[in-house]
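task queued by scheduler; priority normal; single chain, no ligands, no partner chains; default sampling; output format set to structure tokens
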Amino acid sequence: MTAQKKYKLGEIANILGGQTFRGKAQANFESEIRLIQIKDITEGYLDNLDNLGYADIEQSNLKVRLHKNNILMPLRGNRQASLLYNIDNQFITTTTNQVAVLTPQIELVLPAYLLWFLNTQYFKDTLSQLKTGTTISQLSIKRLADITLLLPSKNIQNEIINISNNWQSQKEVLNDLISNGEELSEGLCFDKIKHAVK
């Protein structure tokens, strides 16, 4: 049987809040700094910056700069998704203080494994119990850091990553089949209508 150890999330990843902005975070002009907001966070990997807005901040005032393999998770609201920042460090990107920035300790946990774990239903259920606030739910970094998880060996982590990636690939194929099937089915139905009303 492979050994597993219990860790607090804060023991296997450094967790910080994003950049604090004085006013609006998003600029209405192109700046040298890209901005990830809660609405931009979806489960999976961020591989390009094309759809992101720009941050309304001077580079000299920037305190939180994202690096490859950072994982982003909303601290506020109902969105339950984690995103792995998979962009080279030559680009300057930040996020707001409503987002937690996790930097996995590579010697303990693989970033892709931690991303998988943070997007599991088990973890989402745990988060739901920890969030406070009646109108807009919130999660503190301290409470996030105190969440306990079992961490398997890196070999098992790699196996889990492979299983997850395989399922994601199959899901994409299935989604394409469903989308094509719906288009085909709708087309056939409208053909029937056209022939019936001639």
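post-processing summary
- The beta strands are 5-8, 13-17, 34-36, 44-46, 53-54, 71-74, 83-85, 93-95, 99-104, 148-151.
- The two ends are 71 Å apart (CA to CA).
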